[in-house]
Structures are given as C-alpha cells and as structure tokens.
What we know:
Blueprint: H1 2-21, H2 25-46
Helix pairs in contact: 1-2
Amino acid sequence: MEINIVTIIVALIAIAIAWKVLxxxxxxxxxxxxxxxxxxxxxxVMA
Length: 47
C-alpha cells in the first residue's frame, strides 16, 4: 500500500514538472509515459 502512495506522489510531481517544462508533442508523450509507468507500478505489483 505504501508503494502505491509514493508512486502516485512521484507521478504527480513528474506530471507537474513535465507540464511546466515541456510543450507540444513532447509534453503529450511525456505525460503518457509517466501515467503508463505509474499505472504499471501500482496495478502490476498488486496483480
């Protein structure tokens, strides 16, 4: 359970940084990659 909370917090921080720093297609790809990795960690570990 603790790894899920930490993963979500790290993903939110990474999303905020990507949102401010990147633009255009790179922002979209970065956001998708961050969300995909976070979902894999949260749901892949539990399964």
